[in-house]
Amino acid sequence: xxxxxxxxxxxxxxxxxxxxxxxxxxxxxxxEKSNAxxxxxxxxxxxxxxxxxxxxxxxAITCLPSPEAVANVVEGSDGLIHGATDGKVWIEMSTTDSxxxxxxxxxxxxxxxxxxxxxVSGGCHRAATGNIAIxxxxxxxxxxxxxxxxxxxxxxxxxxxxLGKASVLKVVTNYLASTHLAALGEGLxxxxxxxxxxxxxYEGIKISSGNSFVxxxxxxxxxxGSYNINFTMDLVCKDVxxxxxxxxxxxxxxxxxxxITEIFKKGREKYGDRAWSSMIVxxxxxxxxxxxxxxxxPAELVDDTQxxxxxxVKIEN
Length: 317
Description:
Layout: E1 2-6, H1 10-21, E2 25-29, H2 37-41, E3 45-46, H3 50-56, E4 59-62, H4 67-75, E5 89-92, H5 98-109, E6 114-117, E7 120-121, H6 124-127, E8 132-138, H7 140-153, E9 154-161, H8 165-193, H9 198-206, H10 213-223, H11 233-249, H12 256-271, H13 282-288, E10 312-315
Parallel strand pairs: 1-2, 1-4, 2-3, 4-5, 5-6, 8-9, 9-10
Antiparallel strand pairs: 6-8, 7-8
Helix pairs in contact: 8-10, 8-11, 8-12, 9-10, 11-12
């Protein structure tokens, strides 16, 4: 199958590589051609614009940092919409605004292009091994057409419902992950100040009701001092902001969301846009003049599971 991929950042590169490894004919585009060099050396074909990529591909995939970037790639002067033709498929894999997804989806569908959103969850380490989860929104026809590409990139694939629903669910999951990350910093600092060995604290939380995916991954990179979760402060601020905007638009009287938004805003101001998101706990380390280091954690986070044979798919009819 001829598949085009636009957006070769931390996650996008790994998803594109999975498509290439699965034997698909891959076209690529990014604002920085250097991001595509490894893929090109492995057989991917560079294109000079989203328009060209769409004209050559059966399925065009976008994985970009913001709703604004997605809109520019889709409807810009050299955008996807000018190169895609009737019967082709667009898969949007960014964490984006559901209203913007619906707007762009309507534009593409008027040209006969099948659209689905497919944001991923699980982190870069799982994207690299094809174990990442994919939340999908769109018609059943679009889902079926997109499935060969989706199954090459992810293992757990959930069809959430109509277009726009997966974007909402993805924003919710990122908000919950960010909330637990901030809470973990406080919990680990209490353990450290109480004289509990942090490696034992890590294991204790892992086997308890306080455990989470965030703890099993991000606590490791906090304790090894790298903070490297391959997700930056500007992106987490975007995501918690999207959640807060959604809640406000529905007149939901949230109490935690505004606080989390403010916490990460301060972290971004202190450490910069490109600081790793897990550095949010460093605000507490600095304030307490105490680090949260522990021996026995690898310098880089890797997936703790191998690429599974086949895939697990759940369809919402």
